[in-house]
Amino acid sequence: MIVARSLSTLLLAAVLAAAQRPAVISRKARYLLFPPGSNMGIEVALSIPVRKSVNVAMNIEANYVLPDNVTYFFPELVPSLDQGRLAESFGITRRRTYTTVITMLNRIGFDGRSCLLRAICEASETPLHHNGLFGDLLHVIFTPSTSNDEQLGPDFSTAEQKGVEGGDCKALYPNCPKGLFDMFTALG
Predict the structure, then answer these.
(1) In 40-111, which residue ranges form alpha helices assigned H by DSSP?
(2) What is d(CA 120, CA 165) in angstroms, rounded to the nearest whole number?
(3) Whole-structure pTM value
(4) Is residue 54 a contact partner of residue 19, using CB atoms and an 8 Å limit?
(5) What is the pLDDT of residues 60-76, one digit of tens each?
(6) What are the boundaries of each domain within the chain?
(7) Angle at the Cα of 53 from the Cα atoms of 49 and 58, rounded to 5 degrees
(8) H helices within the chain, ranges in order?
(9) Which residues of the chain are under the pLDDT cut of 70?
């Protein structure tokens, strides 16, 4: 009986104490941060058997840089840093993609800039939307007007415009022996 009375007194004291406190309980938002240099990747692979011991495979891979600093979530916390440079340092930009494509083409013996401009011209000349995911990706990559102005220079917008107008991309960029579609298809 004494134990029951003590418990009821304790319960009553707890209810009265809770009634005197404000009803709103809050806490600061929490964020998940990773060690510097952390990445996450997703890969999708499709393998189709052609013969008994021969397969044709296609891989699509996406890599993401994981946040290691609160400025990923709140870039305004760094007021002295140029916000454009901050945003560019966190992701894939058209400028970075074009620089990579030009470098890769130069390494295999092509005039990288000329071939990229020809690819932009050809992609603008021929709509790629009806080719599924791959066509959409090519359209986004090789159509500079689909993103914010990254100050790529007039050559890129001119190449796109010449393609839209139906210009002869091969004649416009003679330093590039193979076009974008020459690498994937044989049109006859």
Answers:
(1) 83-90, 94-107
(2) 13
(3) 0.53
(4) no
(5) 888 888 887 777 666 66
(6) 29-80, 92-188
(7) 40
(8) 2-20, 83-90, 94-107, 112-125, 132-141, 154-164, 169-172
(9) 1-8, 10-25, 29-31, 72-91, 129, 148-149, 183-188
